[in-house]
Amino acid sequence: MASKKTRKGGQIGTPKSTIPIVRTPSDRTRKKTGNKAGTRNSVIEAAESARQNQRKDPRFGSKIPVDLLRHKKISSQTVEKKITYRTPKHELEAIEADEKLQKLLDKREKKGLAKLEQDYVNTNLARHLVLCEMLGIDTAEENEDEGDPLAGLDAISIDDFKD
Questions:
Q1: Which residues 6+ apart lie within 8 Å of 118 measured at CB?
Q2: Whether the model pTM is above 0.85
Q3: CA–CA dist 123, 95 (Å, integer)
Q4: Which of 17, 91, 99, 117 could bridge 113 with an S-S bond, Cβ 3.0-4.6 Å?
């Protein structure tokens, strides 16, 4: 009699080795995500030290104090340069011939003025009004053609132009 056949076949392919394969770290590198173990507090300290290093940059700021009330010093210097005039008429002519005042008045019509410029204009215009009152000059601009320009045409008659 023949032996009974089994359904299991023989070995197909190469047999597994019982010796484990040791891989080197260079074979497979993992993508690093997150922080390393034990760095919960050191990350915060590193960020703070980076900010302190930025503040130590010598290009930032100056140790020289900045005078915030600079305009008061400028106005006190202009008071020292005050010019006295012989007569009010000479002073009025000087104010009217002041180029700086004329430029500031033109600038005021187009756009606003700075505080110091506005103060300069106001003081000179106030002094101009006082001098005009002292000299008896009327500062109000009167328009000669206040009436209707067509009102004079009604009075014309054709008989005036006939021969």
A1: 108
A2: no
A3: 11
A4: 117
